[in-house]
Design goal:
The structure is a single chain. With about 400 residues, the protein is α/β, with parallel strands linked by helices. The protein folds into 2 domains: about 25-135 and about 280-350, Periplasmic binding protein-like II (D-Maltodextrin-Binding Protein, domain 2), CATH 3.40.190; about 135-275 and about 355-395, Periplasmic binding protein-like II (D-Maltodextrin-Binding Protein, domain 2), CATH 3.40.190.10. It is about 45% helix and about 15% strand. It is built from 16 helices and 14 strands. It has helices spanning about 1-15, 35-55, 70-80, 95, 150-160, 180-190, 200-205, 210-220, 230-240, 255-260, 290-300, 305-315, 330-335, 340-350, 360-375, 380-395, and strands spanning about 25-30, 55-65, 85-90, 120, 125, 130-135, 135-140, 170-175, 225, 245, 260-265, 275-285, 320, 350-355. Strands 1, 2, 3, 6, 12, 13 and 14 form a 7-stranded mixed sheet that branches. Helix 2 (about 35-55) packs antiparallel against helix 12, helix 6 crosses helix 8 (about 210-220) and helix 8 packs across helix 16. The protein is globular. The N and C termini lie far apart (about 50 Å).
Length: about 400
């Protein structure tokens, strides 16, 4: 009873100390990229739960599109009209760090060790990762490619499957900003290159393994269809591809699951490790936000496994929580007792987050343009390496902020 009396006394004193202004409803502006109808409904449901737990906070949601959202954010922050809380891709953190609030490291406590560097720039946390995902390798069951296959075995089996125009050994991506990297670069990594993963960028481009990896990628074009992401996913649904790197949303497609399995690692040559690119959706607080206390409360709420897991169950392409699962049962429930989801989760855990630099987006553009020319055989592997070296060296000479 004494403990209960003390607690009630403390609450009364605290509430009495609150000013009238403190008890006013505060409006928290949140800009986010969960803009497709199903995504927006699921995200709004999470926010409404937060509002019920925090009746003095009202969240005003503004959806953005990936196609132009970056430019809108730049304009808003430059003009001083930015949101309180912003949803960013992990690759954008360094670029926006100057307008973000450094976060208390306690928000990192719930994050899995594999993902703890996401949202960090120069050892300072500017964002918390919420969900993580990676492009995973779908392989047609008819190819017979299984976990542990080598690059050579993969190529031979895909070459046998390749019978155009009915079906193609592999799908490679081109002419699709941000997706060329996610769908093609992991093959270069599996062939021994470290483009965009080792800093400075020019050092990775100058590595002796790059030409061999570019040759291996170009060789895949002999048994490939080279198209933008949307067309590749259409072919995937039709069962026309022997293999392709695609997103987790395809695991919710019954036609895809019928024809394909998922590998937990990409078949590799010597020197490769089968990793894909780790992507993450993060939340950050504006440096100029007048509602930092409320913004911190929202980030702490989002950093809970149960909140994130509910969102991931609703939205297949959201990926997986960045937080520790509280129990093995909670993880099993999320993975839906399906081998395909478990393989996708294993691939996500072993994937690599790209180093965060203020020039990342320019480096990504340079690599994507060169790879597209390589895939169309407008460049030889040696010419492609030289172009990469020239363009990435120029970026390395610009002022750059590196993460740990």
């Amino acid at each position: 009873m004494q403990h209960r009396h003390t607690l009630l006394t403390w609450i009364a004193v605290f509430l009495g100390a609150c000013t009238a202004q403190d008890q006013q409803v505060r409006v928290l502006k949140v800009w986010h990229f969960w803009s497709e109808p199903a995504q927006e409904r699921a995200f709004r449901a999470a926010i409404e739960e937060f509002e019920r737990a925090h009746p003095a906070i009202r969240v005003e949601l503004t959806p953005l599109q990936w196609s132009d959202g970056q430019a809108k954010l730049q304009i808003a922050f430059t003009s001083g009209a930015g949101p309180d809380v912003v949803h960013l891709g992990a690759e954008w953190i360094a670029q926006f760090a100057p307008v973000l609030t450094p976060l208390d490291t306690t928000l990192s406590a719930a994050v899995r060790p594999e993902f703890v560097q996401i949202g960090m720039v120069n050892a300072t946390r500017y964002a918390i990762p919420w969900t993580v995902n990676a492009r995973v390798l779908f392989v047609h069951r008819a190819t017979g490619i299984s976990e542990g296959a080598s690059w050579q075995e993969m190529y031979q089996r895909l070459a046998t499957f390749h019978q155009p125009p009915q079906r193609y050994g592999i799908g490679l991506c081109t002419s699709d900003p941000h997706n060329v990297i996610k769908r093609d670069l992991p093959f270069l990594w599996s062939a021994g290159a470290r483009l965009l993963h080792v800093l400075p960028y020019s050092a990775a481009a100058a590595d002796s393994n790059v030409v061999g990896a570019l040759q291996a990628l170009q060789q895949l074009t002999l048994i490939a269809v080279v198209e933008p992401s949307r067309q590749l996913d259409i072919r995937l649904r039709r069962g026309e591809l022997g293999a392709v790197l695609s997103g987790l949303w395809m695991l919710a497609d019954s036609a895809v699951v019928h024809h394909y399995t998922v590998l937990p690692a990409i078949p590799s040559m010597k020197g490769g490790d089968g990793a894909s690119i780790l992507s993450a959706d993060c939340f950050a607080i504006s440096k100029n936000s007048p509602n930092r206390r409320e913004a911190y409360a929202l980030l702490a709420y989002l950093a809970q496994w149960d909140v994130t897991a509910r969102f991931c169950r609703s939205i297949a392409d959201a990926g997986f929580p960045a937080q520790h699962p509280p129990t093995p049962t909670a993880l099993d429930s999320l993975l839906r007792q399906s081998w395909l989801w478990r393989a996708a989760y294993e691939q996500t855990l072993r994937s690599r987050i790209l180093p965060v630099t203020s020039t990342y987006l320019e480096a990504e553009r340079a690599v994507e343009e060169v790879l597209s020319q390589l895939l169309y055989r407008a460049l030889t592997p040696s010419q492609a390496q030289q172009q990469l070296l020239t363009r990435l060296t120029a970026l390395d000479q610009a002022k750059t902020v590196y993460s740990n």
